[in-house]
Amino acid sequence: MADNPSGSNDDPLSPADSIRAEIQRALADQSFSSEEAMRDFVNEKMAEVQRAPVADFQGLSREQMHQLIHAPFDTPELVRFAEGIEARPAATAIRLLEVIVNAAGEDGIKLTAKGNLPRAVVHEAKQALEAEDLYWEWIPGVISNEDDFEELHVIKLTAGLARFTRKERGRLKATRAIQKRIRKEEWAAIYRTLLQAYCRQFNWAYSDGFPDLHITRDAFAFSLYLFHRFGDEPRPVSFYEQCFVRAFPMALQEVEPERPGRDPEHIVQHCWSIRTVTRFAMRFGLVEAAEGRGSAFQSGKPLEEQRIRKSVLYDQAVHWGAGL
What we know:
By secondary structure, the chain is mainly alpha-helical.
């Protein structure tokens, strides 16, 4: 399959304007015996337009895209999550959660004055990822506390959103429910709950310096659909960036150029790849570097030039409906 995100047209209209234009074209050649007949025709045509595949959506319809953005965890006919997971997933997010819950034990973890995890837990988390060759976004320097370890910090926050943990009198406590699930190895439920908290509650713009661009998070299921369609073969991250911008060109209007050479399209593409590839799909074990698991991105290569593919875990964690 060629590395071309879409052979679509370059229609500059907004989605609503585009639908309106299609309805108007359909009405131009029609005559109606009554206003009610015209309304019935318009409603029928509207439903037809909503169900029709859209090239920029990689064959998804407007109706399907709406469901993926607004109710991805409630449309099992389109996509289901974690049904094929049995053993502990080979995913950074899950391994870090396990470290936190196990460290909490029955009494909880005594947090630092800043509310961070103690150094012993940070060190244990780092060792856990290294031992299993799991991905982490390494930044040069010594990891000595939670502030130095972005993945651990984010998963600690997400665990709270998922109600796996809570803070109480200076300690971080794991709920009995998550402790029980880990003991019983209910990894599918754990994975799905943590994934849902990260994709629906956690702020993807948190401390990354990019514009808000909420569509990067809201369209996470569409991004997963792109990996489903194209991820069997290694492809450069730039291929997926282009797919995303084609699907959501209105995102370009949300950003201002930072400096010459960095136009809105570049900003949106880079924002998408950081948030979706490195800080979502890699952390949850859904894609991997073409060279292998772990942090095996080619050294010195820009992110957009790195080649990725979907992982073995992807096919256990994400299931698409018939025909997709």
